[in-house]
Amino acid sequence: LDSLGELMILRGRFAEARELLERAVSVARERKREWYEAQAMRNLARCLLAEGKFAAAAEKAHETIELSGRI
User: What is the pTM of this model?
Assistant: First the structure.
């Protein structure tokens, strides 16, 4: 899901990317895979930034940094 989301970002298909990446974060959390969760969150922040949603992108980036510090 994360890789597909990243591909959608590169293609400029941000709504699809965001949906895939949100699912990737959810699945990673359910399976307690923190590294994958952080990776998907990082890409979700990139997607939000590309969409011009700067506050949401910054918030997601901060969440990603906090999670990365715990891994």
Answer: 0.91
DSSP state of 39: H
Q: What are phi and psi of 33, to 5 degrees?
A: -110, 85
> How far apart are alpha carbons 27 and 3 in whole angstroms?
14
Q: Are 36 and 2 in contact (CB under 8 A)?
A: yes
- d(CA 10, CA 16) in angstroms, rounded, equals 11
pLDDT digits (tens, 9 = 90+) for 28-68: 999 999 999 999 999 999 999 999 999 999 999 999 999 99
d(CA 5, CA 35): 16
The owner of tokens 């699945």 is 27
Q: How many Å separate Cα 28 from the centre of its chain?
A: 11
